[in-house]
Amino acid sequence: MNVIKNIRIRGLDKEWIFLKIPLICFWFGIFRHILSKNYKVPIPSGICKIVNCANLIEGHGLFFMIVASSLLCIMYLLDFKMKWTTLGLFSLSVIVFTSEDSSGILNRSGTFSFIFLAQSFAYWINGSNLLKLKYSRIQYSIQAVVVGYFLSGCSKLLDSGLSWPSDGSRITLQVLKSFYYHYYTTLDSTELLKAYEIVQFLTESQNILVVLLAGSLTLELFALTAAVNKSYARFYGIALLLMHIGIYYFMDILIVSFAVPMVFVMINPFYLAVFLYDKMFKKPTFPHTLKSM
Amino acid sequence: MGNRCKKFLEWGISTFGVALLYIIGVLLFNETHPFSRFPMYSNFPNWSYSFYLTDEANEIIPFSSLETTGSSVGHLYGSVSDELNIPYGSFRESEEELQQIGDRMMFVLLESNELKYKYINLYRKGFYYQNDSIHDLTVLMTSYERH
């Protein structure tokens, strides 16, 4: 029994390592990018209404943020004092992302911050039970991701009702807007050519559009089911990734704050690649998951 | 039976508890980071806006030269309108309101970016459906001159 438990823990450890390394690297990249933007927080929202976020992202505050975030990232990678490390990462994440929101750029990157809080819950609640902890820090992260999709689906139902997919013909206006955004950013005129091609395609293919929108709404509404089983979450993640690829192709929109954590947490591509490599070359590194895959 | 209920409740909390907490957070704090109900594209109104800048020769200035993006400026329009309590969308904004929003947008944009141009116009280009075809309407929101 203990042998099985140890094998299971080893497998979960590997899954966790392949989840946390890309996640923290990407988070740190975005974090530094926001800090480099020299935001002045002119429209305070959220925590920036209480705390003067501008002082925290420039001058000495900026230095503190960079040092603190670098230290916390190292501690996170080393699994050191994780109860506090994850809580610290959550706090810094909230301050910096809210500063961005407070500069008029409402990117809705809540998933990025909330994942660290979810992981913190796992350490605080299940700290005394090793197997439970190692399972829950991944499962809670999955919950933090899928709840965003679920709420997005609920918003569509609340704002438009069940007719959301059939109202989709006017999505072409959003497509135009999005491609024009890119055009005005770079002045690359191929963006406009692509925009009008896609608008024409969508106008002529109303039935396909309704099916695609209905499919994505269904995926969002049932996203919480992915929290039930980790292997199922992987397949659900691949379906969500296909949805994001479709949105990117047709609307030139990549919702980084949604898609990237989803890929790292739900699909865990690096773990999957190693798992498949081991399976193909008959190195049973992850015996506990062979059945569930 | 009681044991079964307890086990089911425990399973429910451990499987969906974190998600439930987030939903409660959204209900309590609304659109406050990290909470959001993610309403992006939750409806498809008969309007969409994009924005661009031009120089004194009325040539378009790419947003990349101001280290921002068209999408960020689009977000900024919504945030500034909310800040100024001006309802926006469906081309309902008056000229004065557009000027007010435009002035504030320019202030925010130039606050964190160095201005390399002497003169800047901010335009709003809007799209809408009329008689099953897409039309566009461009309006000058504001002009800014460096002194």
Protein model, in words:
The complex is a heterodimer of chains A (293) and B (147). Chain A has 293 residues and is mostly helical. Chain A is built from 13 helices and no strands. The longest helix of chain A is centred in the N-terminal third of the chain and has 35 residues, at 2-36. Chain A is globular, with a radius of gyration of 21 Å. Chain B has 147 residues and is an alpha+beta fold. Chain B has two domains: 1-43; 45-145. Chain B is built from three helices and four strands; from the N terminus they run αββααββ. Chain B has a four-stranded antiparallel sheet. In chain B, a hairpin with a 5-residue loop joins strand 1 and strand 2 (60-61). Chain B is elongated. The N and C termini of chain B lie far apart (79 Å). The model of chain B has no long low-confidence stretch (mean pLDDT 93). The chains are: A mainly alpha (293), B alpha+beta (147). Chains A and B meet through helix 4, helix 5, helix 6 and helix 7 of A and helix 1, strand 1, helix 2, helix 3 and strand 3 of B.
Search tags:
heterodimer, A: 293 residues, mainly alpha, B: alpha+beta, 40% helix
Condensed summary:
Chain A has 293 residues and is mainly α. Chain A has 13 helices and no strands.
Roughly what percent helix of chain A? over 70%
Major beta sheet summary of chain B: 4 strands, antiparallel
Number of strands of chain A: 0
Counting H and I runs of at least 4 residues, what is the number of helices of chain B?
A: 3
Strand content of chain B: 15-25%
Kindly report the spatial arrangement of strands forming the biggest sheet of chain B.
Answer: 2-1-3-4
| Biggest β-sheet description of chain A | none
Spans where pLDDT lies below 50 across 5 or more residues of chain B: none
Largest interface: A-B, 74 and 63 residues
Integer average pLDDT of chain A: 92
The SS-based structural class of chain B is alpha+beta
General form of chain A: globular
Count of alpha and pi helical runs of chain A: 13
- What is Rg of chain B? 22 Å
Tell me the Rg of chain A in angstroms.
21 Å
- Estimate what percentage of residues of chain A fall within beta strands: under 5%
Distance between the termini of chain B: 79 Å
